[in-house]
Amino acid sequence: MKKETSAAVKKAATQEKAENKLDYERIRTFVKSYIKEDSEKLEEIYSSAVEREVPVIREDTRDYLRLLLNQVKPVKVLEIGTAVGYSALFMAEVLDNIGEYHIDTIELDDVRAEEAQGHITEFGKEDKIHLYRGDAAEVLKTLTEKYDFIFIDAAKAQYMNYLQAVMKLVHADSVIVTDNVLESGLVLESHFLVEKRDRTIHDKLREYLYTLKNDERLETAILSIGDGVAVSVVKKI
Hints:
Low-confidence stretches: none
Radius of gyration: 20 Å
Number of helices: 8
Structural class: alpha/beta
Strand order of the largest sheet: 3-2-1-4-5-7-6
Distance between the termini: 62 Å
Mean pLDDT: 87
Shape: globular
Largest sheet: 7 strands, mixed
Number of strands: 7
Oligomer: single chain
């Protein structure tokens, strides 16, 4: 009798979990239906990137990024992970309506960097967006600016290294946004439930999130927007 009761409880819990997941997906779909559309030229870059499986920010992340930029009104912006230039151009489009700004962006892949530079030129943003080509870990060592807004969206295994470097490039009230911190839900699982090939990135993201939340210099919120966004405000240097 106890076994039957236990099985029934398990079955009910599984069914409830499935229903909750369905409700969550319905909520996300509903919310995304209200997202403001890109300009036609930006949409072309975005659609092409998605079709080719080039990593670009998700639509709901983009919407949240627009809100943050309007709140922070940054003059100096740093992006780690240019890809084909979509997010840098998106930020530039938002900031065009706010005030003076300059964006420094870093990309390691030569092919993507070349495409990104072409898009930057096509949009006439060469004076607003500067593309650094190379390993972000090395490029960051050469920078001396103090940035108001930093967007980290590159190799997740390197997030801890990027954080250490950018903390030398910020001032009190700078905002650091890190994308894809939930890795499609991977970080929710126990280390031993994750496949061996994914354990390194799982552990590194867990370490990164722990560091963000426990660094006394930062005030951080972790949000389930897109594939997970961490927003950190620098309290002190």
